Amino acid sequence: MFFLMGAGADSTTCHVAAHALASPVAAVFFASAVCTLALAVLLGSMRLRPPWWCACAVCEAYLTASWTGEFDNLCDWFAHLLRREPGRTVHVHVLGNVLTANPATVEHMLRGRFDNYPKGAPFSAILADFLGRGIFNVDGDSWLFQRKLAAAELASPAIRAFTARVVASELRCRLIPLLHSASAGQGGEEKLLDLQDVFRRFAFDCICKISFGLDPGCLELSLPMSAFADAFDTASMLSARRATAPMHVVWKIKRLLNIGDERELRDAIGLVDDLAAEVIRQRRKLGSTTASGDDLLSRFMGSINDDKYLRDIVVSFLLAGRDTVASALTAFFLLLCDHPHVADAIRDEVSRVTAGGRDADDHPAIATSEKLKDMHYVHAALYECMRLFPPVQFDSKFAAGEDTLPDGTPVAKGTRVTYHAYAMGRMESVWGPDCAEFRPERWLRDNQFVPESPYRYPVFQGGVRVCIGKELAIMEMKAAIVAVVQGFDIETVGRSSRRPKFAPGLTAAFAGGVPVRVRRRARARG
């Protein structure tokens, strides 16, 4: 029908089209028709299959989504494909993407041939609207400048002490009281909580205080989540969806016409921009006190005058500090529900390290940074959780030049190469026959935590790009785990399977949330 419309266009048709454009709804349909017509004419004129067409079994399964008949998540299907390959590497041609779960290849990308595997222009284009020139979306001098400045600030004793105070305050004044109020069996009505939402708000509050010196106050569930956090989730989800399209020209055309997902993404990013700009303005109003502020934004403002650049840096740190922490904590307590003996072991270690310390209200005391360092089993359990459920399931680079991977796979210039941390955690070749089991003991030697190679466990990346906020994030997560496990039992509600279904996004999130019932633990006797 569209070909007939194109062939018979005359002045009357143009008049009708112009009249249709007067209505916003009709304009959307008209723009979609024009887009479809243009694509059809392009493919017809080429007299070829689409340029992304591939008849191999893997690409056909991806394009037809036939893999959904056996797997709930794309990451599980990719893990299945990678397990079947001797070199733990597979090429998804329709995406122009080489996937790997081979530690030798990960080391090759992140250390041996680091210069040949930057983020690349295609990746930067996908996330440019959301992350701009932030540290996670740039290469070269811009990346190096931000990394050096951020690394120096995050390593400073002042920032570390400030972060510890923020986390302790959020636990003591917000998260623990919230769980108390929702706990069952206290003479009040039982409440269900969405644990993922709770940890998102906790992490959002922490990172806003640390990064901006701002308290969004979004942990009080009687109020809706702040518009900033909501818009951030939408922007993350829709930005990630861009990367799954076989033809990037599709989302680029939709962006140009401001229709569909791209219109929703633009609206969400607009809200993120507005609120980030307001935060920067408020911090700048502090004048001379800004330079001595403890938050990261105050420190960056001492070196950067460009507000757009500041906005990009702030959003990138928010993505790292809020979404990843919330994802890991949610997964941790899901695993704990299925492995109560791990919770018992954590309580034993905490009691031993803290000597059963309690605060003035007779609640378990919030563990200090020094005490947390001595909790090796907690550390092992957290690492084991992220082995199975890494907050960032995969990471992609684009080959700057031709290369051959250690397993013999040829890589053409411009190819997207992705190491898949989620799949690696499920490889017998990497972790042994018990790789599917949640077993914190695999990280302990003589009751001391012993890390693995970052190329076998690339949860925090490795080599030059290793995560600079790693130690602060671990401290925050361990503090939350210790505080919650000491005082509460968490029970999932309405869960039909131990296999979670993930929602789309730049970080791992559980589709539909994680409803739980909270029970306050009686104080241990003897």
TrEMBL record:
GO-annotated molecular function: heme binding; iron ion binding; monooxygenase activity; oxidoreductase activity, acting on paired donors, with incorporation or reduction of molecular oxygen
The protein's required cofactors: heme
InterPro entries recorded: Cyt_P450, Cyt_P450_E_grp-I, Cyt_P450_sf
Residues that span the membrane, as ranges: 20-43
Highest taxon listed in the record's lineage: Eukaryota
Matching Gene3D superfamilies: Cytochrome P450
Positions with a binding annotation for heme: C467
Protein family: Belongs to the cytochrome P450 family.
The protein's name in its UniProt record: Cytochrome P450
